[in-house]
Design goal:
- With 89 residues, the protein is α+β, with helices and mostly antiparallel strands.
- 22% of the residues lie in helices and 28% in strands.
- Strands 2-1-5-3-4 form a 5-stranded mixed beta sheet.
- Helix 1 packs antiparallel against helix 3.
- The protein is globular and about 30 Å long.
- This is ThiS family protein.
Length: 89
C-alpha cells in the first residue's frame, strides 16, 4: 500500500468537510484513483465526477507542487492537491 495526503481547496474542501486527509491506496494507484478511494458523500462526488463517473475536466491535480494529469502514478508520501478553478468578478 501507498500512503498519500490529499489536500482539498475551495468548493471541494467544503464538500469534503476537511482540508486534508492521509489515505492508503494500492501501489501503482493514480491521482484519479486516490479520489475514487475516498467517500465524502454524494455532493462531493457530484462536484468531481460526471454522471458516467468520469472526472470533470475542470478538476486539476498538483502532486508535490507540480501540476499533474489524472493518470499520474502516486508514490508513498506524495502530497496530492485537488483544485477546481475559481472564477470571480
Amino acid at each position: 500500500m501507498t500512503k498519500i495526503t490529499l489536500r482539498y481547496y475551495a468548493q471541494i474542501r467544503q464538500k469534503a468537510g476537511t482540508e486534508s486527509e492521509t489515505v492508503e491506496v494500492p501501489n501503482g494507484a493514480t491521482a484519479l484513483q486516490s479520489l475514487q478511494a475516498v467517500d465524502h458523500g454524494e455532493d462531493f462526488n457530484a462536484m468531481l465526477f460526471d454522471d458516467s463517473g468520469a472526472l470533470r475536466p475542470v478538476i486539476m491535480f498538483v502532486i508535490n507542487d507540480v501540476p499533474a494529469p489524472q493518470d499520474a502514478v502516486l508514490s508513498d508520501g506524495d502530497q496530492v492537491q485537488v483544485f477546481s478553478p475559481v472564477a470571480g468578478g
